[in-house]
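Example: Transmembrane protein 129, E3 ubiquitin ligase.
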Amino acid sequence: MDSPEVTFTLAYLVFAVCFVFTPTEFHSAGLTVQNLLSGWLGSEDAAFVPYHLRRTAATLLCHSLLPLGYYVGMCFAASEKQLYYPSQTPETWRAFLLLALMLPAIACTLIYYWSRDHWARHPLARTLALYALPRSGWQAVASSVNTEFRRIDKFATGVPGARVIVTDTWVMKVTTYRVHVAQQQDVRLTVTEAQQHELSPDSHLPVQLLTIRVASANPAVPAFHIRLNSTEYGELCEKLRAPIRSAANVVIHQSLGDLFLETFASLVEVNPAYSVPSSQDLEACIGCMQTRASVKLVKTCQEAAVGECQQCYCRPMWCLTCMGKWFASRQDPQRPDTWLASRVPCPPAARASASWTCAPALSPWALWLPPGRTGLWASSVLL
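Written out as C-alpha cells, the predicted fold is:
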C-alpha cells in the first residue's frame, strides 16, 4: 500500500473508533451525534423519551455510514485504484462497497420500522408499553419519565455511553444504541462484581467500580447491568426503594478512606519480615483494642543515627488498620492525590520527632506486618 493510503486508513480508523466511543476530547470538540444533530434531536431535559427515540435512530444511521465514508475517502487517497468506477475496481473493493451500501440501507429500514405509529415500535417505546395501564399507551408512561427526569433530585452518573439515571420511579441506563428502563417497585438489584483499579484516569486515585444487575419481576423486561463508582453507592441506595443485595465475596468500599486503607495494606504486605524477639509478646492494638498489634516503624533510609528521622524503639503497638487510619487522618482531605507521597508525625506512642514518607525503597521508615506469631512483615513503601 502507498503511503497516502496507509496514512488515510490509520487516520480514519482512529476517527471512526473515537466517533463511536466518543472520548472526552471528542465531546469537548463537539464531534458527537448529539451535538452535530442537536437542532433535530431537541433537548433531553425538555423531553427525555422523544429525545432518545431520535438519538438512538440517528446514532445507528451515522455509525452505519462510516464504512461508506471510508470508501469515499479512499477514492481520493488512492486515486490510482480508480475506486470511483466500481466496475473497474478489484473484487475485494467491490465487496467492501456493497457492504458499505448495505449497512445504511439496513439501518434506514430498521429506523423506518421503529418510526411507524409515532415510534410505537421502537425498543424503548415497547418497554414503556409494558408498564402502561390497560386504557393508556406508552406515551402516558413516557410523559411520567419525562417529568421525573426534569427533577433536580434524580441520581445521574456515568460516561455518555453508559449513563445511569435513577428517578423516584425508574431505573434507567442510557447506552449508545439503547435505553434500558425498569420500574423501581418491581426490580431486584444485585452487586455482582467489584473491580479495584489502582488509578482513576480522572483523579489519579484508587477507584472501585461496582457492577449491579437490574432484573425486573416482569419477564418481558430484559435485565441489564449498570456500573458506578463505589463512592456513589451510598447516594444510589438513598434514591432506590428496593434493597441492593451483594453477591458472595463482594466487598464494597464506599469512601475514599476505605480505598486508601486497602492500598495502604497492599503496600505493607509486599515487604520482608521483621522478627519479633522471642521474649516479647504482641499485645492488643492500642488504637482499637480489638486485634493484636501487627505493625512496627523501622527506619530504613539511612543509618539509625543519621538524618532528620530518628529510630523508633517502641515495641509493636498498632494494628495495620489503625496505623493506616492514623496516617489518613493527618492528610489534607482536599488533596487525596498527595496522601501516599506525604509526611506525617508518628503516632503518639512513637517518637514525636520522627516522620513517615511513602517513597518506594527509600522511605525513612518501614511498616512491618506479622504473618504469624513469630515475625512482622516490612513495608519499605510506607513509613
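Residues 91-119 form the longest helix (29 residues).
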